[in-house]
Each structure stands twice: as structure tokens, then as C-alpha cells.
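[User] I wish I could look at a protein chain and see how it folds. I have put the entry right below:
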Amino acid sequence: MPRTPSPLIAAAGLVGGYAVARWTKKRALGGVVLAVAGGVAAREWQRVGGGKVAAGLGGAYVAAFAGSHPLAKKIGAWPAVFSVAGGMAAASWAVTRKAG
């Protein structure tokens, strides 16, 4: 079974988590989407690069989520979410591209 690339999983978790929270009006449900995608991505980061890579990218994933909130006040919610999702995907790709 082919694996889904971790950059795609991370970006989809950030965008999907926000979308679910916004459209269902249930922030906790968006948090579940965010957490599940983060867990799947972290498992792939660990498989490809080891524990340090998984911890570093996991921290970046949490920071991207947290950073999207103040960024949204400056540029809007969707642009902020897409910006941090793109940044997270780029970071994941850069760190894991040679190992995977």
C-alpha cells in the first residue's frame, strides 16, 4: 500500500481542522481532525527520519496551528491557514525528502 506523503498530511490537517471547525461551528471537532492528521504525519516523520525529526516537525505543526491565530488577525482566516499549511508542508518536505 503506498504511503501518503507527510507534507500532504500535515497541510491537510491544518486546512481540514480549520474547515471542520468553521463549518460545523464545533471547534473541538476541528481539533480532532487537526490532532488525527498530526498523529498520522508524526508517525510517518518518525518512520522516515526518527524520533528527533518527528519531535521537531511535531513542534512545528503545533507552532503553525498556534501561529495561524495571530496571523489571521492581520491577513484573514483562510489566508493565514493556507500560509501556515504551505509553510508546514514545505518544512516537512525539506526535512524528510532525502530520507523517504
Summary: Residues 51-75 form the longest helix (25 residues). Residues 64 and 84 are 5 Å apart (CA to CA).
